[in-house]
Amino acid sequence: MIGIDIVDINDVLLHPRTWKHMRFIKAKGDRYPEDINPILLYWIVWSAKEAIFKSKRKLKPFDPKLITITFSHDLNFSSKELSGSVKITSNYVMAIAAQESIKPLHKIWMNHQKVYYQKAVRERIIGYFKPLNVKFTVDKNLLPLLSVNEEKKIPISLTHHGNYMGFCIENHKILKC
Fold first, then answer.
1. Closest Cα to residue 98, out of 36, 29, 154?
2. Domain 2-99 has what CATH class?
3. Dist CA 54 CA 125 (whole Å)
């Protein structure tokens, strides 16, 4: 169980959000640090909840109001059996969520193509793990798995938004090249 989400905060198509918009994503019991920029808070909470949602690998619609989340002051968060962290840069907000026992491996890239995000991120991942023979396959819910040397299939979480794309996967020994 691992999930990642990224929001390109400089995307011109991104609708500005304020504290008032939190009502669309706030679950009963959510706890946020009070010292976060209110304009960024929406995207911090959104990306954390989407990372949690992706980590569950279930086929159902994403509804952030159904995910209760608690943040600490250092942008670490927890939700039931999952925990994670948010990274904020001047260009994006990124969240990773996983079970405590999982050590995540992630990578974010600029995407200059602006189209075919799914294909672009998959090509970058294949290149990232060379010389390993990695291919993409899917699980019973048609969610992505990374097949490594045709012997191990590992759940992988993909993300893309605006100028950025990336992945998160459990850091297995087999991925060391």
1. 154
2. alpha beta
3. 18
SS3 call for 173 = helix
Contact indicator for 161, 10 with CB cutoff of 8 Å:
no
CA 42 – CA 18 distance, rounded (Å): 7
Check whether the bond before 131 is cis (ω within 30° of 0). Answer: yes
DSSP 113: S
pLDDT digits (tens, 9 = 90+) for 59-113: 889 999 999 999 998 899 999 999 999 999 999 999 999 998 899 999 999 987 6
Which of helix, strand or coil describes residue 109?
Answer: strand
Give the span between the Cα atoms of 20 and 17, in whole angstroms.
Answer: 8
pLDDT value of residue 19 = 81
Dihedral angle computed from the Cα positions of residues 14, 61, 29 and 74, in that order, rounded to the nearest 10 degrees: -50
| Per-residue CA distances from 145 to 32, 38, 39, 135, 176 (Å) | 33, 36, 35, 8, 17
Residue-level pLDDT at 177:
56
**Residue 96 to residue 50: CA distance in whole angstroms:** 9
Check: pTM over 0.90? Answer yes or no.
Answer: yes
